[in-house]
């Protein structure tokens, strides 16, 4: 196991008599790499297995069936999508699920009419897997609970009150399933080896915390050390991976480092990861909290969760959108990227 990314017994770390060396390990990881793995986390194995098995069957469907699971309006964060690299080779399949199915569901949950507009583009639920919606909600709720407990743990190791990080009762969340294919293109025309091929570019999540479960036959997920080098996030079936997002870094005036990560190719079978991105409520403006604020002024600008969420599609398409994808989005129709190799 990587020394950089420790495996933490979450129940033990949250206990009143938690060993001091365990708490020091948590603090060190949170301050230096922004990633921990947690075991004894309280999420029933059957909740994880039920979700993974259901999504496995969906992602194993024939391509012509999955194409019909793309967002009917071209929304990049709803339903199934795939993307190729510049050579037309499939790098990743992704299935995205919003917190609420549509605007009516969001309003029924108590969101304001303005905030409910985030859900104008409805979720896509595969008819082939009728139990998937319920399995997703069980998975989501369990992972959000883990995020809340880890925030409490981080407050403890930073010697601040347990309620310091205010997600609120109505935390804003999204769920994403990533399916990374086998990579048979060794010696490809771009001259990139399997080990150097990036299937997901390095980044830090814009959440407060991201809670993830991964399965597969190789440690393609990597975290970035402070010196810029990379270390694997090893696959352990009983563990969940917890990444610090940029909002938590902002809250702590940079005390907690964002967990920068990437995914490299190299597996002989498909590798899958399923993540719940957890943010504070949509009406939150995130800025350094009093316990961490620098009296001489902050390097961190306030971040409106609502403004970031409501602008996320346009920002994504501006940076990554291909012409045909942009056209589909403007014309309110499905988009499926073409894979040629």
Distance between the termini: 35 Å
User: What is the class in the CATH system?
Assistant: Mainly Beta
- Going by CATH, the homologous superfamily would be B-lactam Antibiotic, Isopenicillin N Synthase, Chain
H/I helix tally: 11
Q: Catalogue the unreliable spans.
A: none
**What number of structural domains do the residues give?**
1
* Strands in their spatial order, largest beta sheet: 1-2-10-7-12-5-4-3
Proportion of residues in extended strands: 15-25%
Rg over CA atoms, rounded to whole Å, is 20 Å
- Major sheet attributes: 8 strands, mixed
Write a structural description.
The chain is of the alpha+beta class. The chain has a single domain (7-61, 126-310), classed as B-lactam Antibiotic, Isopenicillin N Synthase, Chain (Jelly Rolls), CATH 2.60.120. The protein contains 11 helices and 14 strands. The strands form 3 sheets. Strands 1-2-10-7-12-5-4-3 form an 8-stranded mixed β-sheet. Strands 6-11-8-9 form a 4-stranded antiparallel β-sheet, with no helix packed on it. A two-stranded antiparallel sheet has the order 13-14. α2 packs across α7 and α3 (45-59) packs across α7 (132-157). The mean pLDDT is 93.
């Amino acid at each position: 196991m990587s020394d950089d990314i420790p495996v933490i017994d979450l129940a033990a770390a949250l206990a009143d008599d938690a060993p001091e060396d365990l708490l020091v390990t948590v603090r060190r990881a949170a301050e230096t790499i922004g990633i921990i793995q947690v075991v004894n986390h309280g999420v029933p194995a059957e909740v994880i297995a039920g979700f993974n098995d259901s999504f496995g069957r969906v992602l194993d469907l024939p391509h012509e069936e999955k194409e019909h699971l793309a967002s009917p309006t071209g929304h990049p964060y709803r339903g199934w999508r795939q993307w190729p690299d510049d050579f037309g080779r499939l790098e990743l399949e992704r299935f995205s699920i919003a917190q609420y199915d549509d605007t009516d569901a969001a309003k029924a949950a108590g969101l304001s009419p303005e905030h409910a507009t985030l859900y104008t583009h409805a979720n896509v639920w595969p008819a082939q897997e009728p139990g998937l919606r319920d399995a997703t909600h069980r998975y989501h709720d369990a992972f959000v609970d883990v995020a809340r407990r880890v925030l409490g743990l981080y407050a403890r190791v930073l010697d601040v009150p347990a309620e310091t990080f205010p997600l609120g009762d109505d935390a804003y969340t999204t769920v994403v399933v990533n399916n990374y294919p086998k990579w048979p293109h060794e010696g490809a025309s771009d001259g990139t080896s399997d080990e150097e091929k990036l299937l997901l570019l390095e980044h830090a999540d814009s959440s407060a915390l991201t809670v993830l479960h991964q399965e597969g036959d190789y440690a393609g997920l990597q975290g970035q050390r402070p010196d810029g080098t990379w270390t694997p996030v090893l696959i352990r079936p009983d563990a969940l991976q917890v990444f610090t997002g940029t909002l938590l870094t902002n809250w702590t005036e940079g005390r907690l480092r964002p967990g920068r990560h990437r995914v490299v190719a190299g597996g002989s079978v498909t590798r899958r990861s399923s993540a719940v991105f957890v943010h504070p409520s949509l009406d939150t403006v995130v800025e350094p909290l009093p316990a961490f604020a620098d009296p001489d002024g902050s390097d961190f600008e306030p971040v409106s969760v609502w403004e970031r969420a409501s602008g996320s599609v346009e920002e994504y398409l501006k940076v990554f959108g291909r012409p045909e994808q942009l056209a589909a989005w403007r014309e309110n129709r499905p988009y499926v990227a073409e894979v040629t190799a």
